[in-house]
Design a protein that fits this description.
Blueprint: E1 7-10, E2 39-42, H1 44-58, E3 63-67, H2 79-83, E4 89-94, E5 99-105, E6 108-109, E7 114-117, E8 120-121, E9 143-147, E10 162-166, E11 176-187, E12 194-205, E13 210-230, E14 233-238, E15 267-272, E16 274-298, E17 301-324, E18 331-335, E19 341-349, E20 351-374, E21 379-392, E22 400-407, E23 413-418, E24 429-431, E25 449-475, E26 478-497, E27 527-532, E28 547-551, H3 553-561, E29 589-590, E30 596-615, E31 618-639, E32 642-647, E33 654-659, E34 666-686, E35 691-702, E36 713-714, E37 718-720, E38 725-728, E39 736-750, E40 753-765, E41 768-775, E42 781-782, E43 787-788, E44 791-798, E45 802-814, E46 820-831, E47 853-862, E48 865-874, E49 877-881, E50 894-897, E51 900-910, E52 915-922, E53 928-932, E54 939-944, E55 948-956
Parallel strand pairs: 7-10, 38-44
Antiparallel strand pairs: 1-2, 3-9, 4-5, 5-6, 7-8, 9-10, 11-12, 11-55, 12-13, 13-16, 13-54, 14-15, 16-17, 17-20, 18-19, 19-23, 20-21, 20-22, 21-25, 22-25, 23-24, 25-26, 26-29, 26-30, 27-28, 30-31, 31-34, 32-33, 33-37, 34-35, 35-39, 36-38, 39-40, 40-45, 41-44, 42-43, 45-46, 46-47, 47-48, 48-51, ...
Length: 957
């Protein structure tokens, strides 16, 4: 036995307990133990780190791994949270939930990374190739392998990295085994304990020729998050009369003789389109289940059949307030030196109170069969087939029920927004708020009336059919791998909403208290309490509105529907003329432009050779491969032709789109194809048994996200004055191509300890540019100006190229037998195409996701006690082009993420060899997640998602 840690017997040194062939490539596996000599595997933190080191050291390319510490004991509750401990890997946080939902590898996020389950593609109903890692439970995961340089026998379809998630199988560890865990967690702001738990059972029979494994896991997280937002900093030009201190006599929008005439708008500036605050409460429940059957009738044949199922339900209740602004309506404008509007007033501003219920159900099932056949001593084959399907809201669930109520009209105030500091520590402050400017009456329900009701139901399916055949010829120090694969991915989507039929504005207007003939006062029974805004975002200065009103949007719907059918009886407050066919029920209508079927078929073939020899008595490893990829794309979608815009009597900021032939649809069919050769080469020289040098070169590709391939130009039915938008996909998009180079040195200077430096360079072409252009569409006229309507059209095209370069530095050290140790790493990245915030001609292109980052994990592991503290830092970076509102004159405005540090703590104690207890604190430093626009004081989002405390017990046998 090894002091201070439980031990299990296994057939290979470095193989994680309960994980068979955890890395899909033999080159990434640890060296086998001597035949008939079972070895001891140390579990716990030190054992996991040693297995990770062994995989990294043995791989010919650049591979990092994370192994389970023991059966049913992965280091983190979330797969993405574990991945961020690796060099060059950072996570993308979901603000509302505070969960790590995605990863960025060497600056490349989302679709640039490919995630596999046991070497198979995953179906995802989100419309992206990237995987939402909050849907991937870490319960009973055996190992994560991150291929930063490609292995053509696995994939070459990721510019960032290929991430393979390996699950346990019964032959990993023959006999009868049970692993179970039960825990509870509580978020400090939410205040209630919610359960999680899992059970794994594995058994082999008939002299270990038949094995069966089953596991099931349930997890739940409840999170209450505070959020302050500005939904878009839009760029444009002010008239001088709008500026603070102006003595202009007139400044009236729409007047050709006023100071706002187009030839007088010459002062550059960015203004906040919408500003407010909200509190969201999210319930995230997930069930994962897996069943595996293995049959090994002879030593040369192994059949594995497995089925993986997951179901995740996320429901979010939100309450908030927001004010909407238009650039041409602002007065008393103050600008800083960059053109950011740091203060202003807008006469007659309404105030919306918001409440919403968002619901999402994603079910995924993957059924697969794998046959390994050893034809001869030197020749082996591997055949694999799988069918996977993912559903978003398969039962027609309504994904969003939201209701805006409030006051405006004669109660509109001279509201403005003051920006007094940086987005990393200062909140923008709404001033001159409340009915007629009386802030003390901000939450006075007696003056509040109905406004708009948005209901949306998105339904997607993603079906993936895949097959691969692999062969391996191996003799002495030479190995030849060859094979091919076929993957067919069919993505179908459609949405229904209350925009298509215009029912969303059936009772818009705020009611008689606001001096309007449309909109109705609401009964007191729909209102709940209020939410305090004191210390809303910890660490930030800036006062918010007095509070947030809570109410149930479904109760608002029920009351409005109870008023009767406005077509057969007079209903005071109904917005007559807005909604043809409205009979009182807030039904949804299918949005034709949302309907699309996208089918992608990919064929690939590869050959890969490797050998080992000596150069001056130094072992030299050479691997070279070539992969051929052929892709054919077919798309089918529905479109509508806009012919006019009409104004709303209920709300002067609303416009409704009129379509040709009473909204008749056109079928749009498109297709494209492409093929590429993708070479790779890996060189490794062992200067000494402890010092290794690596040199790697390759070409990889990343295909466009499926949702970007929709051929329809969509002009939404609900538009806003001064903020006309349209979106379009592009079925002719080509994949990104990247030429990649790595040069690394690794020093394995002591047991379970190493130091490494890796320089990398990626030259990427065919960048997909998410540009925004202002243009007219089909001669549609803007009724508020009498001129051709100028739409901000978002569309993707293949654009320029760019180079990304950087260095990864990693250190892992264990202090002898003391039980103490740490891992630390840092990544520094840069590009020849950075974003220039001062260049208003630059729109839609710069390399996103690039950020310097560093991680430190310090631990103690001895005498059955384990403790670990993890510190993760990521510097500020450009997340994307585009904001929640993006209608400015300078194209897609950028979104930057502010730098963030998060500290997590976990510990466990082995009561017996089979039973342990554990606990942990996530985000112990109460870190916030925030974003900003073009300049650092243009706050877009500030999220406070609090701390989470977890405690529980594990059992394994």
């Amino acid at each position: 036995m090894v002091s201070g840690a439980s031990c299990v017997l296994a057939v290979a040194v470095g193989s994680p307990a309960f994980a068979q062939d955890a890395s899909p490539s033999p080159t990434a596996s640890a060296a086998p133990a001597p035949e008939d000599a079972p070895s001891i595997i140390v579990t716990g933190i030190r054992g996991s780190l040693q297995r990770n080191l062994d995989i990294k050291r043995a791989a010919p390319g650049v591979v990092d791994a994370i192994s389970a510490e023991d059966i049913g004991k992965f280091p983190d509750p979330n797969v993405a949270a574990s991945l961020q401990r690796l060099p060059g890997v950072s996570v993308q946080i979901s603000g509302n939930r505070g969960e790590a939902t995605g990863v960025t590898v060497r600056g490349f996020s989302g679709d640039f990374n490919e995630t596999l389950y046991d070497g198979r593609h995953i179906s995802t109903a989100t419309g992206q190739r990237s995987v939402d890692f909050s849907t991937v439970g870490s319960d009973f995961v055996g190992q994560l392998s991150v291929y930063k340089t490609p292995d053509v026998s696995v994939s070459a379809s990721a510019i960032g990295a290929t991430i393979d998630i390996a699950f346990p199988k019964p032959f990993d560890h023959p006999g009868f085994h049970v692993a179970a865990a039960m825990s509870g967690s509580i978020q400090d702001r939410k205040g209630n304990v919610v359960p999680s738990g899992g059970l794994l059972v594995s058994k082999t029979f008939a002299d270990d020729t038949i094995g069966i494994l089953g596991d099931i896991a349930y997890s739940r997280h409840d999170t209450t998050t505070n959020h302050v937002f500005v939904n878009g900093w839009e760029g444009g030009y002010y008239a001088p009369c709008q500026l603070s201190g102006s003595t202009a006599a007139t400044c009236n929008p729409g007047s050709t003789t006023s100071g706002l005439a187009s030839d007088k708008q010459n002062v550059l500036g960015w203004f906040p389109q919408q500003a407010g605050a909200e509190q969201t409460t999210t319930r995230d429940e997930r069930v994962d289940a897996r069943l595996v059957l293995q049959w090994k009738p002879t030593d040369k044949l192994l059949l594995t059949v497995d089925d993986n199922f997951s179901s995740q339900v996320v429901q979010t209740n939100s309450y908030g307030y927001a004010a909407w602004f238009n650039m041409s309506s602002l007065t008393n404008v103050k600008l800083d030196k960059n053109g950011t509007t740091v203060d202003f007033n807008q006469p007659g501003t309404p105030m919306d109170m918001n409440a919403g219920i968002a619901h999402s159900l994603i079910n995924t099932n993957q059924l697969g069969a794998n046959l390994k056949y050893e034809a001869t001593e030197h020749l082996k084959f591997d055949f694999d087939a799988a069918f996977a399907k993912s559903w978003l809201n398969p039962n027609g669930e309504i994904g969003n029920n939201s209701s805006d109520i409030g006051y405006g009209g004669i109660l509109g105030a001279n509201t403005g927004l003051a920006v007094t500091g940086n987005s990393s520590n200062t909140l923008p402050v709404l001033h001159d708020i409340g009915p007629s400017g009386n802030a003390g009456q901000f939450l006075n329900t007696s003056v509040i009336g109905s406004h708009v009701m948005v209901r949306q139901a998105q339904q997607n399916t993603d079906v993936v059919r895949q097959f691969h055949a692999k062969g391996t010829w191996e003799q002495e120090n030479f190995k030849l791998q060859f094979g091919g694969s076929y993957t067919e991915d069919t993505f179908r989507l459609q949405a229904s909403d209350t925009f298509t039929n215009n029912y969303w504005q059936a009772y818009a207007g705020y009611g008689t208290a606001s001096g309007r003939t449309t909109g109705v006062a609401l009964p007191s029974s729909i209102y709940g309490g209020t939410i305090s805004t004191a210390n809303f975002i910890p660490g930030y200065s800036g006062n918010l509105a007095p509070g947030i009103l809570t109410y149930n949007p479904l109760a608002v719907y029920a009351y409005l529907q109870s008023l009767g059918n406005p077509q057969t009886t007079n209903v005071p407050g109904y917005n007559y003329g807005c909604c043809t066919g409205f009979t009182g029920a807030l039904n949804l209508a299918l949005s034709p432009s949302s309907v699309a079927t996208i089918r992608e078929k990919s064929w690939s073939a590869y050959v890969r050779g490797s050998f080992t020899t000596d150069i001056a008595s130094m072992p030299f490893h050479f691997v070279s491969g070539l992969r051929y990829e052929n892709t054919h794309l077919d798309t089918l979608a529905l479109g509508q032709t806009p012919t006019a815009l009409t104004t709303s009597t209920a709300d002067p900021t609303l416009l409704t789109t009129v379509y040709a032939n009473n909204g008749a649809t056109n079928t749009i069919v498109a297709g494209s194809s492409y093929n590429y050769l993708l070479p790779s080469m890996d060189l490794k020289l062992e200067l000494t048994p402890k010092l290794h040098l690596r040199l790697d070169g390759s070409r990889t590709l990343t295909r466009p996200g499926l949702s970007k391939l929709n051929p329809v130009l969509n002009v939404g039915s609900g538009q806003r004055v001064g903020a006309l938008t349209a979106t379009g996909g592009n079925p002719n998009l080509k994949p990104y191509l990247s030429d990649n180079f790595d040069a690394a040195a690794e020093w394995y200077y002591a047991p379970n300890s190493y130091f490494s430096v890796d320089f990398f360079l990626k030259h990427v072409s065919n960048f997909i540019v998410a540009g925004v252009q202002r243009q007219t569409i089909n001669g549609v006229v803007d009724p508020t100006t009498g001129q051709l309507a100028q739409f901000a059209v978002s569309q993707n095209v293949n654009g320029p190229d760019a180079t990304v370069r950087g260095v990864e530095i990693a250190l892992q050290h264990v202090f002898g037998r003391s039980g103490f140790g740490f891992t630390a790493n840092a990544t520094f990245v840069g590009t020849n195409k950075p974003y220039d915030s001062s260049d208003i001609s630059q729109s839609g292109f710069a390399v996103t996701g690039l950020a310097n980052s560093a991680n430190l994990v310090a631990f103690y592991d001895k005498h059955g006690f384990q403790a670990r503290v993890a510190v993760n830092w990521r510097d500020s970076y450009l997340l994307q082009f585009g904001q929640n509102q993006n209608t400015g004159q300078f194209g897609a405005e950028p979104t930057f993420v502010n730098s963030q540090v998060q500290v997590d703590l976990s510990s466990s104690y082995d009561i017996t060899k089979q039973v342990s207890v554990f606990g942990g604190i996530t985000n112990i430093n109460n870190s916030t997640y925030s974003t900003h626009g073009r300049f650092s004081n243009q706050l877009l989002d500030a999220y406070s998602y609090g701390r989470r405390f977890t405690f529980g017990a594990r059992y394994h046998f």
